[in-house]
Amino acid sequence: MKVIEVKHPLIQHKLGLMREADVSTKRFRELAKEVAALLTYEATSDFEMETVEINGWNGPIQVEQIKGKKVTVVPILRAGLGMMDGVTEHIPSAKISVVGIYRDEETLEPVPYFEKLVSNIEERIAMVVDPMLATGGSMISTLDLLKERGCTHIKVLVLVAAPEGLKALEEAHPDIELYTASVDERLNEHGYILPGLGDAGDKIFGTK
Ligand SMILES: O=P(O)(O)OC[C@H]1O[C@H](OP(=O)(O)OP(=O)(O)O)[C@H](O)[C@@H]1O
Ligand SMILES: O=c1cc[nH]c(=O)[nH]1
Ligand SMILES: [Mg+2]
């Protein structure tokens, strides 16, 4: 599995602001979107290009365009919705495939509850977004589902990843690429990432 921890100053600065204990819902939501947009910039840097001829102001010219597969963004409900607009800011034509999974607070096991994928998803690059990769269970379950539906080209974007989650994801899905703003230290005894962000879903939706 290719893990890219993006150390760009804008990303690191914004992530630092998100870690403030008293960050407001509004600010957290804005920053989640901004960091997602910056991760998208990095995650699309290997998209294949082709030269095409167009009519320029002074006659025919050759320009570079992105070639080949189209994109579907896959937000994992709920918290993944907080990153979705950051991705579509740069890829406005992307179709959206929604996966609903929550993590059981006692067992930490993923519980799937919703799925609405675009048709012909196998023809698209899937860009899966979720702010937190903790045990990795929710992401592994999502990627299991996407592969069952035929996806072969998957990029994962998370704001913060725990080493434990990265290890589990590597074992389950070694073929994917993961982009993150930070590989944090560890999980605590309740499965929360340290130093982490706290409960990202609650912070984005204001449910606490
Ligand atoms: O790697 P894991 O151990 O599976 O944990 C990470 C998951 O937990 C959070 O979702 P949560 O279950 O809190 O749902 P929510 O987005 O609705 O708040 C987070 O957004 C991830 O989906
Ligand atoms: O640290 C964590 C772990 C799981 N889910 C979150 O929102 N935060
Ligand atoms: Mg949550």
UniProtKB/TrEMBL annotation:
The reaction(s) annotated as catalysed by this protein in its Swiss-Prot or TrEMBL entry are: UMP + diphosphate = 5-phospho-alpha-D-ribose 1-diphosphate + uracil
| Pfam families noted in UniProt | UPRTase (PF14681)
Which Gene3D superfamilies does the entry link to? 3.40.50.2020
Residue ranges occupied by any Phosphoribosyltransferase domain in the UniProt entry = 7-207
The enzyme's E.C. designation = 2.4.2.9
Example GO molecular function: GTP binding
**What domain of life?**
Bacteria
Q: Which GO terms describe its biological process?
A: UMP salvage; uracil salvage
Q: Which InterPro entries match?
A: PRTase-like, PRTase_dom, Upp_B, UPRT, UPRTase/APRTase
Cofactor(s) the protein requires to work:
Mg(2+)
Q: Does the keyword Signal apply?
A: no
Q: In which pathway does it act?
A: Pyrimidine metabolism; UMP biosynthesis via salvage pathway; UMP from uracil: step 1/1
Print the keywords alphabetically: Allosteric enzyme, Glycosyltransferase, GTP-binding, Magnesium, Nucleotide-binding, Transferase
Q: How is the cofactor bound?
A: Binds 1 Mg(2+) ion per subunit. The magnesium is bound as Mg-PRPP.
Positions of 5-phospho-alpha-D-ribose 1-diphosphate binding: R78, R103, D130, P131, M132, L133, A134, T135, G136, G137, S138, D199
What regulates the activity here? Allosterically activated by GTP.
Q: Which family does it belong to?
A: Belongs to the UPRTase family.
- PANTHER family associated with the record: ADENINE PHOSPHORIBOSYLTRANSFERASE, URACIL PHOSPHORIBOSYLTRANSFERASE, CHLOROPLASTIC
Cited function: Catalyzes the conversion of uracil and 5-phospho-alpha-D-ribose 1-diphosphate (PRPP) to UMP and diphosphate.
Name the UniProt record assigns to this protein: Uracil phosphoribosyltransferase
Organism for this UniProt entry: Ferrimonas aestuarii
